[in-house]
Model the fold of this input.
Amino acid sequence: MRFSRKPMTFKRMSCSRSTISKYRNHLWFFLFACFLSWMLWIYLHYLVKLDGKNGIVFSVNNDPNDIDSDERRMSILHVPANPNESMNGETRMEETEQISVSEKDVKSDNLAVVKENEQEPAVTDNERTSTEQKVQPTDSATAIATENEQESVVGIPEGKPNNGAMTMENQQKPVGGGVEEGNRIQGMQPQNKSMTRDKKKTPVVEENGVEQGIEDKSDSDPCSGRYVYIHNLPRRFNEDILKNCQSLSAWTDMCLYLSNMGLGPRLSNSERAFSNTGWYGTNQFSLEVIFHNRMKQYDCLTNNSTMASAIFVPFYAGLDVARYLWYDKELKDTASTDLSKWLSQRPEWKEMWGRNHFAVAGRISWDFRRQTMILSQWGNGLMYLPAFKNMTMLTIESSPWHRNDFGVPYPTYFHPSNDKEVYQWQNKMRSQRRRYMFSFAGAPRPNLPDSIRNQIIDQCSASRQKCKLLKCGLVGSNCHRPVNVMKMFQSSVFCLQPPGDSYTRRSTFDSILAGCIPVFFHPGSAYVQYSWHLPKNYKKYSVFIPGNSIRNGNVSIEKILNRIPRHEVVAMREEVIRLIPKVIYANPKSRLETLEDAFDIAVKSVLERVETVRRDMKEGRNSSFAFAEEMSWKYYLLGTDSDKHEWDPFFDKKHTNF
Done:
């Protein structure tokens, strides 16, 4: 179909008087509507003052500083973008009960809290609490220089209360803090006296007038109840001891073993007895240095001692006393006595008189329990000083007859940097081929009449191909090479752990690390020592043979171990392998992601103990110490000191050398 295009024509509109009169009313109505719209816009702009950038907050009156409960007029309050800024640009501390609005109107970090006039009595200073602030360690802001250049402390900024609407701040970034005095950096002191650990609820009134409670910010703080403050000790109590490392042992170069933050020299894997990373030639007496360096990386450090649940004292007690065990014995008590006086004069001490303090002594308890003033006798008297009797002391072997020291694992050769290294090692131990039924690494104790080591060595030698014996003696023997010890334990199903000079042995933890089931001959060798780290049901991971039966020649170790069903052996070995993370100390330069190592368990247990003591002190009770001190082993193991137990004869002080 063909379309034709016609030219467009326009018809001229008539502008006669009759036409204008016809549309006059419509024109006036349109102009009047525009005028009303303009006036309404001016009213909203100048009266309401809507600020779309920062949002709005509804209160129940036009005056932000006054609440008239009789009028229910709605007004709009400006919420500053800065959570510390009030309506007039200042921060203010409320003196009366606080009122909030619905959370859907305001974000939690910008919540303006306004006060109510003449409705509720004023809150006293004792009832007002500050939100605890979390210390979040970062790679760039966790370390702060101290007197001995080793302590790493995170500062906690304290908010200053002024006049204005009180804001509830979100978690704040850590700030390396402290005030420099001379050559020392002092911990930041609290500026707000109302700070407290108690978790309280702040009364809040919603728009509908219903009073509710919101939990304090400290409830969501993962460090609540876990903060630790590290004392900034004079250098002579730690760093100077390391500088004089050549004097720490008459037979061993401790300078070599205290390198790498206490881990010692790296071990090569040329004989494939280790994994490729994480293995060091660690000395059994270097725990104080390792623990201190791990504590510097603790995720809940604080510079504010009033916020701390526990206070760590980084005194290298074991390294100190080792210098004077054989020479210059008149100096054995000097450092410990001076530190006791220093601590007792500190304000942190007076809060609980030292009962919230803890320290690590990297030797056995008996090295610190000289009961006389005769300096020629063994050890010093650190554990009997009044200050240290109040503290919680962590030792590689504790006393079963004293209540203030607790056993923690000896350091082993394995210090992983991540979880993957632990899992890989555990899997390797599960697949290990074990040629020997049992093994023993050690030397006889001819000077100890009650020692059973001679009988154990004789039985191992008589078992021919079923027992592997690694004889130890002076420095330089095969027993002192980590690769020899670990290879033997990895090839054994059971590892014999008789007492030596004292109840415990580092070999116990080397055998667990190798997946070898330990065999004990005295309950003081592990069961009453490491209750924080090892299961109370000792039959799950070990074998117990009373030492008296070995001494009297009544039993055969080989026959006893042969009678254990194979499925029980498999279960025990798996339990031992599962215990590996709990008895090792991770590399201080890093941190395990999900696993708890011996350090983590020790710190957690100390915090629980201190909290129990703190609660008892607040309630005026002394239940934490309501047991005979000589029965400490029984109380901590069983929760009572009165019931008779099959192990009572083992801890009869009349028949023991310790």
Notes: The chain has 17 helices and 19 strands. The CA atoms of residues 3 and 9 lie 18 Å apart. Residues 1-5, 50-218 have pLDDT under 50 and may be disordered. The first strand starts at residue 56 and ends at 59.
